[in-house]
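INTERNAL TRANSFER SHEET
From: sequence group
To: structure group
Subject: LARGE xylosyl- and glucuronyltransferase 2

Please process the attached sequence and return the structure record in the designated field. Keep the field labels unchanged so the import script can parse them.
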Amino acid sequence: SGLHQRRVRTHLVFMTPPPADGRSLLLAPCLADTPAARVLERAVLESRVREVEEENRRIRLQLSQSQGGAGVVAGQPPDGNYGNQQWGASADTGPEDGDNTAEERNNHTECPRSPPVQKCELIHVACVCAGHNATRDVVTLVKSVLFHRRNPLHFHFITDTVANQILSALFQSWMVPSVQVSFYDADELKSEVSWIPNKHYSGIYGLMKLTLTKALPADLSKVIVLDTDITFATDIAELWGIFRKFTDKQVIGLVENQSDWYLGNLWKNHKPWPALGRGFNTGVILLYLERLRRIGWEQMWRLTAERELMSMLSTSLADQDIFNAFIKQNPVLVHQLPCFWNVQLSDHTRSEQCYTEVSDLKVIHWNSPKKLRVKNKHVEFFRNLYLTFLEYDGNLLRRELFGCPSPASLDSLQNALEELDEDDQCYDFRRERLTVHRVHLNFLQYEYTPAPDGTDVTLVAQLSMDRLQMLEAICKHWDGPISLALYMSDAEAQQFLRYAQASEVLKNRKNVGYHVVYKEGQFYPVNLVRNVALRNAKTPYVFLTDVDFLPMYGLYDYLRRTVVHLDMAHTKKALVVPAFETLRYRLSFPKSKAELLSMLDMGTLYTFRYHVWPKGHAPTNYAKWRTATTPYKVEWEADFEPYVVVRRDCPEYDQRFVGFGWNKVSHVLELDAQEFDLVVLPNAFMVHMPHAPSFDISKFRSSSSYRTCLNTLKDEFHQDLSRKYGSAALKYLTAQRTI
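Return from structure group:
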């Protein structure tokens, strides 16, 4: 009976035998006079507690089995117990479980409990991730883990090519202390599971967790395996500590499935795979890899799958079906986790029985295809918790774990920062050069097939949130591939995502690469952001522009013809696209050069910045362009900053220039130093659309120290140019001093 069970458990707790020397086991660690004695007593205590826990576990197993038998006699189904206790899959019980009696809770010593995980103990986490969308989910998962963690982490990602590229760049630029990342090629594992028919929306990647004993390093003994749609609400070390509660035979830790799927009563003729009772959910798994390899896991799950597929024909829930069929045959191998370690938020689940207070929550699992739209009476709370991490500033998670070693790269960065002179008037500018910005490449799905003739051109630009409205217009004007770097906060990136997914124009364009550079510091790192867009262009040629410009209709095809005509593949040329501007927010865009010249004469259009900064584009020679029918060469002049088409392997932008001033000028200057010919295209043009002044130009105009530092950076740039190009660079310094 329940009363008998409570008496036995209480008896076990109170009847723990004292140490052989007669001292009080519970009080001695608190009262020991010396550190050595305290350590010794604590070790003895921990050993006895483990013995008692194991004895309790055995008795609970006997009781649950006898109760299960009684249930059958009484006509109750043996699988009816919520929790599968009768199968020996022991849930972790203790003072934190909330189901102990007051007598039991009062029976615990007030001495500090031994932590389940040692300080600086490395925790291993594995995750299967494929495709653009999954990488965004992984970032939110990782944020929730990092927010709560107090231990070093090693993430193991099984990825396709896309996810590998995105996540490797992200973690390399994130630079979180005490975090290691390893990648494993999912393509090499596909043959292990491709023979299994799977109806689940996750496809072949939903079966990859079966291969982890083979995919992960042979010397890795245990790992926490997580789905990408998981959110942590506690320190992952608590979950890692449960490995120590495994019996000698247990190899897998799982939470019971909280839906009725495996009970087989969801609809007429519903036939799920075999499972113990309600079965188990594989969104959160503790895998004891060392033991799994020892028992021949790879062969065992294959035999299970082959046997069941003879009648089931395919899996419905991917790896979860095979795990459950395996556990049905081998119940002694599973360690059942309390259900708060995987609160499953799909429709019609028993997840609400896993918690009574917010503090009960450990892990939230959005395991419905509906995700945030799932039905649950507390879904608004869960959604807000998820959105908190979704929009959380990832830079704040770069905090050190004090007392744990840091990688050399972080130490070298810290040393470089310490070498800066904080009394330097331009300290903030110099510090900005050392800032490492997080970068999330291909934030949205990107598909590009290279042109067979090798003439393709990518439009390259950068923008911030206040220029988002230009994207649809640019896509309408430019049919070719686009590489855009977006300088945004985590929250702004989510606003952009919602905007892009709602736009009929943007969601249908798969050849646009959106690369998010996350905000950090007080300056807009405009050239760093440009370089991110430039590096991730996939075509032989790039059109370096700004997002405020609309290219003429048909410019993409015109440039592809021109790069062939001017033999760009074998010559160093920078093709200048003449720039114009309008002061009108609504413009009837010119459809030809003749129409543009007419609008220029009528005062509807102007040559770009003629009234503010004529030197920036005067060398284009607009007077000659009006009548030109063939490309013509122009010479570099001081402060010339045209928009150009060049080969993708051109020099990158100089990242010392941040905010407003000299960011494009310096780039064109280096193109000239590398002996690129500046060639103006006679039948190409672009039009700048009006917008409010940027914050950076306001700082430039209002701050004398800002302008002073910009001049300092110019001088240093010239010095570096002289060292790089020798006497040929003297003309730039001379030209600068004469203006």
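Handover comment: The first helix runs from residue 2 to 14. The chain has 26 helices and 23 strands.
Transfer complete.
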